[in-house]
Design brief:
single chain; Rossmann fold; alpha/beta; 19% strand; 7 helices; 182 residues
Amino acid sequence: MKIKVGIMGSAEAARADALNDAAVSLGQAAAAHDIILLTGATSGSVYAAGKAARDVGALHIGISPAHNAMEHVEKYGLPTDACDAIIYTGFGLKGRNVVLVRSCDIVLIFDGGIGSLNEFTIAYDEGKIIGCLTGHGGVADEIERLIEVVKKASKSRIFYDTDPAKLLDNCFIAFQSALARA
């Protein structure tokens, strides 16, 4: 069975070419592991990562906050062209986040704002393997500090790296190790 990897991050338009390049590298690194990619079927850095993964052969499933395709585009202003399939939850943004995170074996946080923080806290509470691609700002660069401040116990394994390929490798090793123990 293929591992389901979620990429969560900023839906805002990429702030710099370096950020877009990092999103593309993250998507390509994920696809190199022959995974199923899950995203929030959104725009910004997540769109760039998802499209890059799909362009090199990954199956990209989007989890939408909308009830249907029309609401996805018209109400939420979200694209449809980067996903192979979109699941319409009708649960709004925060409800969508729960479905998205719970559907993943590995959660990758990249850049991101308050929505990504919400996705992280769900993943942390669920005991997921979490990878934070650091060095690009946003929530991903603050998680290590937040974990130290909050001090909440979790079975999550969290990895930090500035290199997408190394981050994915560490997450996959942890996932395979957890499977071996199960």
